[in-house]
Design goal:
The chain is mainly alpha-helical. The protein is 70% helix and 3% strand. The strands form two sheets. A two-stranded antiparallel sheet has the order 1-2. A two-stranded antiparallel sheet has the order 3-4.
């Protein structure tokens, strides 16, 4: 029965997204609601950026229908208290609503990063208020259970961190949605394995939403009016849902499984999370505002090696899959701290290799530095 519900949720969300996204495109072109290219962006033609406004409504309709049917027929919801699940999901919906509204305003008019940060902190506070907070590091740096007064601020940091990581990695076609889709599949599979069925259905409902969007985003053509971006509305929504599921898994009652869940869950987002740290440190080193955008993200570096946009996207998706597989395999044999150190070491090595290929490419094409025209040719 549970497999039937998961497949049904996936199909319903995919169908709804497939119906809604073309309508968003139609409205965007009629009202001229575009993401206008500038020197920092890769695309060279105006593209609608409201694809993300379909994410939250489709997810809400799909999950409410699934939960309503299960309650109506008295089917088991979770291996935890239904009351706990209900409270957490009510607070999740409240936070998603606030992020959804601020994202829509940002996509239409623009919002300062400080204002968005305040809203993100308010939304993050809803998780501990519902009883969801990171209460253990699973042995990372020798730390296991952590007290409430430490765990709650750390939880707020994690939620804001993940939310902004997804937002910042959304720089080329299919990257943020592809990474989120991979993460949701892995997290959904873990939730299914441990009997956390509602969270599993949320994860696969998001996958159902992302697949039609990814097709429009990657393969849609501007001249045919079929291309669309997710915008801040979509990236904020995805980041918040990902942080919700990851925190749920890391707070699992099974203390033996918790260290594994901590590392494997966070490894699904290694690419965007590690990239944020590197970019912020780079900006601080150059005495620049860490909150202002630039062209130093991991996808920009891939493009600077001479890769085309789709190859850069595919390469980063493969990097994400590599880290997930590596951590899932080695977590049985290595200490969680050592494995985390190995992840960081491999990330640094990857960037050293990238820097070598960037220097090699720019030495061969000295006039083709990172400009908007060159970015267009790379695509």
């Amino acid at each position: 029965m549970i497999y039937f519900f998961i497949v049904t949720v996936f199909v319903i969300s995919a169908l709804l997204a497939s119906v809604i996204i073309p309508r968003i495109l139609l409205v965007s072109y009629k009202k001229k609601l575009f993401d206008v290219p500038d020197a920092r962006k890769v695309h060279t033609s105006p593209v609608p950026r409201l694809g993300g406004i379909s994410f939250f409504p489709v997810l809400l309709v799909t999950i409410c229908l699934a939960m309503g049917i299960r309650y109506l027929f008295h089917l088991p919801i979770e291996h935890v208290s239904p009351d706990t699940v209900f409270v957490q999901f009510m607070f999740l919906v409240a936070g998603l609503t606030m992020l959804y509204l601020i994202g829509v305003v940002d996509d239409l008019m623009g919002v300062s990063y400080l204002y968005k940060l305040v809203i993100q902190l308010l939304c993050a506070c809803l998780f501990p208020a519902s009883g969801l907070w990171l209460n253990s590091l699973g042995g990372l740096f020798g730390i296991y259970d952590i007290p409430f007064w430490v765990g709650v601020p750390f939880t707020l940091f994690i939620v804001v961190y993940i939310t902004n990581a997804i937002n910042l990695i959304d720089g080329i076609d299919g990257l943020a949605s592809g990474l989120s889709c991979i993460s949701m599949c892995v997290l959904g599979g873990i939730c299914l394995w441990f009997g956390h069925y509602i969270h599993c259905m949320v994860a696969f409902a998001v996958v159902g939403i992302l697949i039609p969007f990814w097709i429009y985003n990657v393969y849609g053509r501007v001249e045919r009016r079929r291309k669309i971006f997710m915008g801040d509305t979509g990236s904020l929504t995805l980041g918040y849902i990902l942080s919700f599921i990851i925190l749920h898994l890391c707070m699992a009652e099974d203390h033996v499984a918790r260290p594994k869940m901590l590392l494997v869950s966070f490894s699904t987002l290694i690419v965007p999370m590690f990239d944020v740290v590197r970019v912020v440190l780079s900006r601080l080193r150059d005495h620049r505002n860490p909150f202002l955008p630039d062209k130093n993200h991991i996808h920009h570096k891939f493009l600077r090696t001479g890769m085309r946009i789709r190859w850069a996207m595919a390469g980063l998706l493969m990097v994400s899959l590599f880290f997930i597989a590596l951590n899932a395999i080695l977590v049985r044999y290595l200490n969680i701290t050592l494995l985390c150190g190995l992840d960081i070491l491999l990330w640094i090595v990857m960037h050293l290799v990238l820097n070598h290929f960037i220097a090699l490419h720019e030495s061969r094409f000295p006039r083709k530095k990172w400009t908007r025209d060159y970015a267009a040719k790379a695509g």
